[in-house]
Amino acid sequence: MILSDFSAALHNLLTLEVEILVSHITYDGQPAAQLIVQDITTRKKAEASLREQNRILPT
C-alpha cells in the first residue's frame, strides 16, 4: 500500500490538495492496481490555520 499527497492542477485552473492510496490487487486473476483519490484541500487549509494560530499565540 502506498499513500501520498500532492497538489493537483485541474484544467480550469483550480488547484486541489489530493491524497492517493494505491494498493496492489488481483483482478480477474491478473495483477492490478487499485487507486483511491481523495480531495484533502479542506483538511490542508485547516492544518495550515491551526499552525498559524499556534504560531501567534502568546506563550
Total of DSSP H or I helical runs spanning 4+ residues? 1
Q: What is the percentage of strand-forming residues?
A: over 45%
Q: Main sheet?
A: 3 strands, antiparallel
What's the helical proportion of residues?
A: 25-40%
Strand order, largest beta sheet = 1-2-3
Query: Could you say how many structural domains there are in total?
Result: 1
Number of strands: 3
| Tertiary shape | elongated
The whole-angstrom Rg is 17 Å
Q: Which regions contain 5 or more consecutive residues with pLDDT less than 50?
A: none
Distance between the termini: 41 Å
Series of H and E elements? EEEH
Structural class: alpha+beta
Write a structural description:
The chain has 1 helix and 3 strands. Helices cover 27% and strands 53% of the residues. A 3-stranded antiparallel beta sheet has the order 1-2-3, with helices on one face. A hairpin with a 2-residue loop joins strand 2 and strand 3 (30-39). The chain has 59 residues and is of the alpha+beta class. It has one domain.
Topology summary:
Blueprint: E1 2-9, E2 15-27, E3 30-39, H1 41-56
Antiparallel strand pairs: 1-2, 2-3
What is shown here, in short?
The protein is of the alpha+beta class. The protein has one helix spanning 41-56, and strands at 2-9, 15-27, 30-39. The radius of gyration is 17 Å and the shape is elongated.
List its traits.
alpha+beta; 3-stranded antiparallel β-sheet; 53% strand; 59 residues; 1 helix
